[in-house]
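Hey forum,

I'm writing up a methods section and want to include a predicted complex as supplementary material. The small molecule is NAP. I've pasted the protein sequence and the SMILES. Can someone with a working setup run it? I'll credit the forum in the acknowledgements.
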Amino acid sequence: MAAQITTPGTIAVTGANRGIGAAIALALARAGYGVACLTRSGGVPETGDSDLRARLVPIRCDVLDEKSVSAALAQAAKGAGGLIGLVNNAGLHTDAKSAELATADYERLMAINATAVFVVAREAHPHLVRAGGGLIVNIGSFFDKLGVKRNLAYCASKAAVGAITRCLAVEWAADNIRVVDVAPGYIVTDLNREMMAAGPLRAYLDKRIPRGEPGSADEVARLVAALYREDLRFLSGETIYIDGAQGIAH
Ligand SMILES: NC(=O)c1ccc[n+]([C@@H]2O[C@H](COP(=O)([O-])OP(=O)(O)OC[C@H]3O[C@@H](n4cnc5c(N)ncnc54)[C@H](OP(=O)(O)O)[C@@H]3O)[C@@H](O)[C@H]2O)c1
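Reply by user p_vandermeer:
Happy to help. C-alpha cells for the complex are below, copy them as they are.
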C-alpha cells in the first residue's frame, strides 16, 4: 500500500500507537509523508480518513530489543521514498522518592528514554545515509533542565536525550543528517487526561504555566511536522522547548 502513495519519503515514529506519538504520526501523514509506525502492538493511530490511513505503515517494534529495532528500521526503509526521518518518541514516566529508587527502576527508565534513543538512531543511520540524509527528532522533556522531586531518573534520562541529540548532530552533519530535540512541557494525553481535566494538579499547572493551561499532543505534533516540512538546514543539535514558557518562568 505504501508503495502506491506519492510522498517525499518515509519517516519512522516510535510509540506511534497512542499519545504524542500517534498525533505526530497523523500530522506527518497529513503533511504528505509515509509514516512507519513502530509500535509494540503493531498498531497504527486511529483515523477515519482512508488517505491518511494509506500513509501509515504498521511495524512491530520493541525499542528495548535491538534485533527488533534493526528489523523494524530495515522494513521502514522499504517504505515509499526511502527512510528520510526518524522520530524517537517512545518513552516512559515513573516517579519515586530518590532515597527509595531501586537501581533496576532507574536503569529501566534510562533504557527506554535514553539508551533506546541512541540505539534506534544508530540502526536508522545506514538507511538515512542511503537516502542521502534526513532529520531525526528526539522527543525530550523540559524536565531535562529542572530539578523535580521524585523525578531523578526521568530528568536524567531526558537530559541524556539532549546530549545524544547534540553529539549525533555534530557527528552526522557530514552525512547530511540533522538531529533536533523537541522538549515538551505538560501535555494532556490519554494517560493523564482525567488528572489534567480538574483537581489539584490542573489548578497548580494553570497557575505555573504562563500561558495558563497545559499543551496538547497536537501542538507538539504540528511543531514536529513543521520541522520536516520547512527543511531548516542550519538548525541541528538544538533542544526546542514547547512548554507554554513554564521552563523559563520565575
Ligand atoms: N505527556 C507529557 O506531558 C510529556 C511531556 C514531556 C515529554 N513527553 C515525552 O513524550 C513521549 C510520548 O509521551 P506520551 O505522553 O505520549 O506517553 P504515553 O501516552 O504513555 O505513550 C508512550 C508510548 O511509548 C511507547 N513505548 C513505551 N515503551 C516502549 C517500548 N519498549 N518499545 C516501543 N514503544 C514503547 C508506548 O507503547 P505501548 O502502547 O506499547 O505501551 C506508547 O506508544 C515520551 O518520550 C515522553 O517522555 C511527554
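Some notes you might quote in the supplement: The chain has one domain: 2-188+216-244. The chain has a mean pLDDT of 96.
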